[in-house]
Amino acid sequence: METEGVVHSIRQEGGLRLLGINWGAHYFNAWIAGSAPLPDSLLDAEVRIQGVCGSLFNFKRQVLGMQIYVPDASFIHVQDGGAPRNSPLRNVDQLLQFSASAHFGERSRILGVVVLAHPGGPTYVSDATGGVLVQNHTPTTLKVGDAVEVIGLPASVSGRFNPVLRDAAIRKLGQAPVPEPLLVTAADILDEGYDAELVQIDAVLMDQAGGQGNQTLVLQAGERIFEAHLDQQRLPMLDRGSLLRVTGVAAIETYESQQTVLPRAFSIALRSSADVTVLESAPWWTAGRAIRGLGLVLLTSILALGWIAVLRRRVHLQTADLRQAKNAAEADTLHILSTAV
Questions:
Q1: Please, which of 68, 170, 194, 326 could form a disulfide with 51 given CB 3.0 to 4.6 Å?
Q2: pTM score, two decimals?
Q3: What b/e readout covers 49-77, taking b as 16+ CB neighbours within 10 angstroms?
């Protein structure tokens, strides 16, 4: 087959070169065999590529996408005279915004500060207009407060409110002040669309769970229940019912209604255990303690009633013995008197 597209990533995997290519709203990989090196100029270039089409599927044999197997680099033909497009500099809130001059499917460049990082992604970057999730990027050691340049492909992800950047390259530029987290309510996060932004929210702890280095807090703010997650770190044990202030990056989940994507729920990604502050300890007299106290009172009452029943039985038996002894004594007295007469 032969197809066209724009190259948005070049990487090595399993001894083969791998091109990430998009065509309109479609994304696919091209696996390049052979030993000829691929020039960096392919990045952002529009290409015509020839190869064998294959499927991308899961273990249920469900087809999830396509990929192309290319014999060698000679089957890749650069269009437009070989001049790659320059990635335009955009603000975060401009990603995937409609513009008559924008080329759909081109990579974008943003400048921002890291608010949460993982070596190869996901990493969250913020600028003055908002925050964005960098889904995957070149392995880079990043920390909160790093000023960075990010070049990646804006893409919509099912279930996410904001666009994400995928197949990105990140370059550290220096240090920058970390944005102050917004103190918000659960309604603010959903109504204002604070997806991928650093926020603070006060909530009551409902439950705490952990496993394999991940910690989860189940929290309630007003009538809204949400989760806060901490990866590869541990949180101290917290009392249920405590009022907490949680700082982290909001991730909004969505649903579709006619032609609109609307917020449905959210979670918070924590950066460290320092992002959880106890504002008010759980009251000593909790529902759990009340239930346990009531159970103890009931158990004590049952034992007391049982002990009373035992005492009554003993008194009854002793009374019967005394009555029997009295009757026997009276009978002996009458017998002695009758014998004397």
A1: 68
A2: 0.72
A3: bebeeeeeeeeeeeeeeebbebeebebbe
